Amino acid sequence: MILADKIIALRKKNGFSQEELAEKLGVSRQSISKWEGAQSTPDLDRVLEMSKLFGVSTDYLLKDEMEETEYVNSEDGSLRRVSMEEANSFLSVKAYTAKRIAAGTMLCITGAASLIFMGGVSEAEEKYGISENACGAIGMIALLIFVAAATALFIHSGMLTKPYAYLETDEFETEYGVSGMVKERRKQYEGKYAKYNITGACLCILSAVPLFGGAFSNDDVLAAMSVCAALIIAGIGCIFFIVAGINNESFLKLLQEGEYSPERKRKPHIASKVGTIYWLAVSAGYVVTSLVTDNWGESWIILAAAGILFPIALIISGMIENKKS
């Protein structure tokens, strides 16, 4: 992207007309028009002024090969400003990716259910005529396909939200009207947020019902199907939690409230570290337990229990963090 295109994009993103930008830089509107038409280029002093005004690096402005915007705080210590256009774009991207992340999570759960189901089929080799090795291979192939599809969704979602990563970690200011718009949209979303959370909670509770049906059966396939049904129902509940949580979190990021307040951004966060250590320990415990007992069909309960206890671990880590602060 050449300098002319970058000036146009930054001017529009910040809501400036050519006349307004010309006034701020102390040049004529015709100069701005020529810069944007690639008929002339601004001198170094004007480039430096635009760097400060737009909150971007001079390297980004001058190097055509730099396609991704590189934001920096200006030398006078002013914060980056979020425009109405950027705020609306962020909310739209988060609403779009929330569904993709939820779908990816469901794909992972479906893959695990496929592996468990084939494990049940392998126990009834004589009845279905499928060898244990074949069942294991089919289950692993299905799991890998589902996980690969989920990974694609996660990566694509991450690429779409990457330009807005600063909203989570950096302090910023919003232009006039942005805060009011976000608050109004959050107020409109409150009803749906409550319904999604209630639905998700009910489905997670009801996911235990199929397990009771499988508990009274001596059929390994039926028992495996009951576990799969429980996972699928719980997975659907997770979809509601994820979509509601991501959308609500996007409002908090723009309003800089809760976990994303300026005060919290200045403090070191231990929640992410706790999450990483927690799930690594859980995964290791699940694999070791399953290998030692050779009972993969029941050791999955470790993962289910870990999922229930994870919010408690986050709450405890947050209390410790606040106490240290």
Inertia-based shape: elongated
* Rg over C-alpha atoms, rounded to the nearest angstrom: 26 Å
State the end-to-end CA separation: 45 Å
- Please trace the helix and strand order, writing H or E for each element: HHHHHEHHHHEHHHHHHH
Q: Which bin fits the share of residues in helices? A: over 70%
Q: Which ranges are low-confidence, i.e. pLDDT below 50, for 5 or more consecutive residues?
A: none
What can be said about the biggest beta sheet? Answer: 2 strands, parallel
How does the helix and strand content classify structurally? mainly alpha
In spatial order, strands of the major sheet run 1-2
Please explain how this structure is put together.
The chain has a two-stranded parallel sheet with strand order 1-2. α6 (84-122) packs antiparallel against α8 (132-161) and α11 (209-215) packs antiparallel against α12. The model has no long low-confidence stretch (mean pLDDT 82). The two termini are 45 Å apart. The chain is mostly helical and 325 residues long. 23% of the residues are buried. Helices cover 76% and strands 2% of the residues.
TL;DR of this structure?
The protein is an all-alpha fold and 325 residues long.
List the helices and strands and how they pair.
Layout: H1 3-13, H2 18-25, H3 29-36, H4 44-54, H5 58-62, E1 80-82, H6 84-122, H7 125-128, H8 132-161, H9 166-169, E2 172-174, H10 178-206, H11 209-215, H12 220-255, H13 262-265, H14 271-293, H15 296-299, H16 301-324
Parallel strand pairs: 1-2
